[in-house]
Amino acid sequence: MKRANDFRLSKLARxxxxxxxFLGNQMVYATISQRAGGLSIGINMAPDQKCNFDCVYCQVKxxxxxxxxxxxxxxxxxxxVQLLAIVQMGKLSEVNGFSHVPPELxxxxxxxxxxxxxxxLCPNFHGVVQExxxxxxxxxxxxxxxxxxxxxxxLSLKTVxxxxxxxxxxxxxxxxxxxxxxxxxxxxxxxxxxLAQVLANIGxxxxxxxxxxxxxxxxxxxxxxxxxxxxxxxDRLRELVLSGxxxxxxxxxxxxxxxxxxGFCSHLPLAVLSTIARRVRVKTGLxxxxx
Length: 291
Ligand code: SF4
Hints:
Radius of gyration: 18 Å
Order of helices and strands: HEEEHEHEHEHHEEHEEHE
Largest sheet: 9 strands, mixed
Strand order of the largest sheet: 1-2-3-4-5-6-7-9-11
Oligomer: single chain
Low-confidence stretches: 1-14
Strand content: 15-25%
Structural class: alpha/beta
Number of helices: 8
Helix content: 25-40%
Bound molecules: iron/sulfur cluster
Shape: globular
């Protein structure tokens, strides 16, 4: 069932301010997120825009000028503390881009490890999480939830495992799974990363804590995923469930913003997404949300 706020959220989903557009920040930005259900503060874990996927729908306009940039934990920490204070004082509506957002949507839902590339490729992932937990422990701020938004390829890296070991039960990992076959992964994510590795990483993490699966389906060259691909996608989820993976929910959605590169992918209608969701529910018994 859609939340009451979804209509407004779908209109507001474009309120995305990247660090460079937001208070002169380098690492921390704010967004109204449909899937978060309101305000999400983003930590840009990839100022270098590094990613091992090249998704057809990616919004990041990659620019060589970003090469070599890294997460400066001191800067990140200062910017996050400043933004948390603004949110807590109810002053976010005074910041450019947020004046039209209803006050109830300016309540903080989460702090997301996300950004302009793949967060698990951040060499100091563990150090960033440690600093976020230090800030969270400050009684000056309301306790916030952490969410890692990842393509799952780096979940097995030591610094990531060490960071995730510090997550509490209420924190979440949202792992991308856009394909049920290697062929479709290479088409939509434009990566040679093995699907088997992505699934193994999700399965390993989900054996220790619940994981949220995020799946974006779009039309590529005018065609959405075919029956066979949707069946295979459902089979991969079913295999995860049967292997003991704890999957809290599956989020199915399509493109809501313009891709960074003008391209050949486009939005899929809600009816198509709902059909995919229904098939996954039947096949896996999982809770599936459509956005
Ligand atoms: S995984 Fe995320 S950052 Fe990487 S290309 Fe895909 S959408 Fe862009």
